[in-house]
Structures are given as C-alpha cells and as structure tokens.
Design brief:
The chain is of the alpha/beta class. The protein has helices at residues 40-43, 51-73, 85-94, 101-112, 129-146, 155-164, 209-220, 226-238, 243-246, 267-283, 289-318, 333-346, 357-360, 365-373, 375-380; strands at residues 2-7, 12-21, 28-38, 77-78, 114-115, 119-125, 150-154, 177-182, 187-194, 197-203, 322-326, 351-353. The structure holds 5'-O-[(R)-(carboxyoxy)(hydroxy)phosphoryl]adenosine and zinc ion (ZN). Zinc ion binds at residues 155, 159, 183, 327-328, 362.
Length: 398
C-alpha cells in the first residue's frame, strides 16, 4: 500500500509518500518521498505561530511540497484526463477558502495525472484549526481527483508512532506502554494497552512544555522557536566548569514535582523566569551573557527533573513495560540523555523508545504511519464529506 500523507497542523507544511509492505503493525515501511517546509522564519517576528499567516503559507506551499514528494517517490502514474466543468467546480468548492489552491492543484494534475497511490492520510487534529482545514480540504480535493480513500489522522498518534518507528518498521512493542508526549501544544502522559488503545492519564494544567521553552526563550531574548535555543545555551553552560565563579547559581521551581497525580504545570516556571530577569535587570540594564546561560541551564534542568519524576510515578502506577517519548521537545539532547541514563540504570527491563531527532518535530512520515494504522477503517467507510478538522482532537476518545 502506498500512502500519501499531509501535515499542516501548525507551522510545518509537510507531504510524504510512504510504502507499507504488510499489515499494521507488522508492516515494513519505506519512505519513498518526503518534503517539508518550515514556516519558522515567517513567524519569528511574531515570537510564535500566527494562525492566519500559517493558513496562507500552507495554501501557498502545499502543491510545491506535493510535487517534491511525488517526484522523489518516482511513482508511475496514469496520464491526466481533461477535467469536466463539474469536476473543476467541485474542486473549487472544496478549496474555496484556500486562496489560489484549486488552480495550483489543477495545474499539478494536468502535468502529473494520477500517481499510483492507494490511500491519503491527513492530520485532522489536534492543532490550529485554520491550519488544519487547509490540509484537510486539500486532502479531500486530492481524494476526489484521484478517486482514492482518505483517512483523518490524530497528530499525537503520529508522534507516538514516529518514536517507535525504527528506520523501516514498528517494533514488537511490549504493552502496557507509557507515552510521554511533549510538544509545543501538548504535555501528556498516555497509557497504551494496545496499538489502538490510548488513555490520557496526565496532562499539563496550563502551558505545554514546548510552549514554556518558547516563552522562556522569548523573555531571555532568544528567537522563536526557543526550545533549540535554550538547549544550545544550556549545553554551553554545562560544559563550563567555572560558571558558578562567574555568577551566583539561579534556582527555579520544579512545579508539581511531589504532587501525587500525573499532571504538570509550567506557567509558574515561566513566571519565575520573569521574576529572575526583573531582579537581575535592576542591577544591570541587560541580562549578562553569563546569567543568560545560567537561566537557560536552570530552566532545562527544572523541566527535565519534573518530566522524569512524573514519568517515574506514572511507570509505578501503570507497571508499563515500554516507555515512549514523542513530540518536538523529545528532540532535546539533555532530556534524551537524562532519560536514557536514568532508565537504563533504574529500570533495566523497560524498553525506552526515543524518536530519531529528525522525526521528533512535526513531519508527514509520522502521519503516514498513523494513516496505515487506520487504513482498514478508511477503506471500509467511503464517506468523506463529513470529515472535520478538530483543533482539540484527543487520543483518549479513540
Ligand atoms: O511537535 P512539534 O514540532 O509541534 C507541535 O506539535 O507542537 O513541537 C514543537 C515544539 C516547540 O515548542 C519547540 O520549541 C520544541 O518543540 N522543541 C524543542 C527542541 N526542538 C523543538 N524544545 C526543547 N529542545 C529542543 N531541542
Ligand atoms: Zn507535533
């Protein structure tokens, strides 16, 4: 089965072509084509993702990404037939909110025809609704044009599957498995009793961990997205053995570290960063480079400590046999390293899955994997008109 997948939930416009050989979860996967355009340069001046801009950029970039992924995949295709007036009208209707997209798609079709693709997988949530709708409407238009089924995918299931995807296949995962999903929009502990069984057992009460990284970075004066920036400075500080002679050590709180539940809270940490900066800038007008490094380090340490402690509590409560880390923040080198060292020593029987850093942040390969997991349902239900984007789509209800 050849799957074309589309991801537009936030500020990445991504399209992939993935071949699945066999049935989920025992298939082998081959990535035939992969295209991704990151809009970070566009959103940087706003210090975060600006939804209407994201929507416009997705509409501009989807056809070029489709073109790249499909041409990389070198699929054979049947030549395009000329479209009837009725078909053109239907496509225009499906894409009437996405400026210029119908015209670009029709030009693509006239040039490329219908490639040998069996299924389209598209993120339908969670995410920014205006951004999700562009990808979903585009997928509906392609599904109509090529006459192939469409499967709406949960973005968070994509993150889970990307983490366990091991270069070509999914592993023989031992259940129950615990997933710690940490991204710009989510911080969740999810219990999996099987491949298609997700139970939300803990989550953030306010900011997501990636959001906290981004907001703290902004206060420190670092560009968006702040996660990788904080990580870089924290690492620099860690490598400097003399740092405490330059600066008194900063102490930030570890919110909800000892609470008995599995919830998180990161807004207090963000406030503590603001107070620390306010206090320091009363003495010197700007944050000194040393203090900047120190703040980044302490922030990363605080977040990592909380994530680790809550994960341990969840492991004790659930007796999970596997632990999966997923989402954009799981690209963080210090968090990865800390988890790896800790669990190999303290829980030697636990299987720990970390995503390839390239697959940690949003991409379309993970959407193809999740699409394959639900391919059967999609092939059985031909009805597509009613598929809706859902910004708050949850894993738990599925
Ligand atoms: O999963 P993702 O690409 O998008 C969402 O679904 O939200 O995650 C993006 C988030 C951003 O907040 C970004 O700052 C964070 O992941 N991030 C990191 C790192 N790389 C990306 N946070 C900490 N350290 C990193 N190396
Ligand atoms: Zn994501």
């Amino acid at each position: 089965m050849i799957i074309l997948s589309i991801e537009t939930s936030c500020d990445e416009t991504a399209v992939s072509v993935v071949e699945a050989l066999g049935e989920f979860p025992n298939a082998k996967y081959e990535v035939l084509g992969n295209a991704l355009f990151s809009q970070v340069d566009i959103h940087r001046e706003y210090g975060g993702v600006f939804p209407t801009l994201a929507k416009r950029e997705h509409a501009l970039t989807l056809v070029p990404m489709l073109e790249k992924a499909v041409s990389e995949a070198k699929l054979s295709s049947s030549p395009s037939t000329s479209l009837s007036q009725e078909q053109i009208e239907h496509l225009s209707e499906l894409l009437y909110r996405e400026e210029g997209l119908a015209g670009r798609l029709i030009t693509f079709f006239e040039k490329n025809g219908t490639p040998t693709i069996d299924l389209i997988a598209v993120t339908s949530g969670p995410g920014l609704e205006p951004a999700l709708w562009v990808g979903l409407n585009f997928a509906k238009a392609l599904s109509y044009l090529w006459n192939i089924p469409l499967v709406p995918v949960n973005h968070m299931e994509g993150h889970v599957l990307a983490s366990v995807f091991d270069s070509t296949r999914l592993p023989d995962l031992q259940f129950p498995a615990l997933a710690l999903l940490i991204s710009g929009g989510h911080t969740e502990l999810v219990l999996m009793k099987g491949w298609d069984s997700y139970e939300l057992i803990g989550q953030t009460r306010d900011d997501a961990v990636g959001e906290a990284f981004d907001k703290a970075a902004r206060m420190i004066g670092l560009p968006y997205p702040g996660g990788p920036e904080i990580s870089r400075l924290a690492n620099e500080a860690r490598l400097n053995p003399n740092r405490y002679t330059l600066n008194p050590a900063i102490k930030l709180p570890r919110p909800m570290l000892h609470s008995d539940d599995l919830d998180f809270s990161f807004s207090g940490l963000k406030t503590a960063v603001r107070y620390t900066i306010e206090k320091a800038t009363k003495i010197t007008p700007e944050l000194t480079p040393e203090l900047t490094l120190e703040l980044a380090l302490e922030f990363e340490n605080a977040v990592t400590e909380v994530l680790l402690a809550k994960t341990c509590t969840a492991l004790e409560k659930t007796e999970a046999r596997s632990l999966i880390l997923g989402g954009g923040v799981s690209a963080n080198a210090y968090i990865r390293d800390t988890f790896q060292k800790y669990f190999s020593k303290e829980y030697p029987d636990l299987a720990l899955y970390l995503p390839d850093p390239k697959l940690s942040t949003d991409n379309a390969i993970m959407i193809a994997l999740a699409g394959h997991a639900h391919a059967k349902e999609a092939l059985e239900t031909a009805e597509q008109a009613s598929i809706k984007a859902d910004g708050n789509r949850s894993l738990s209800k599925e």
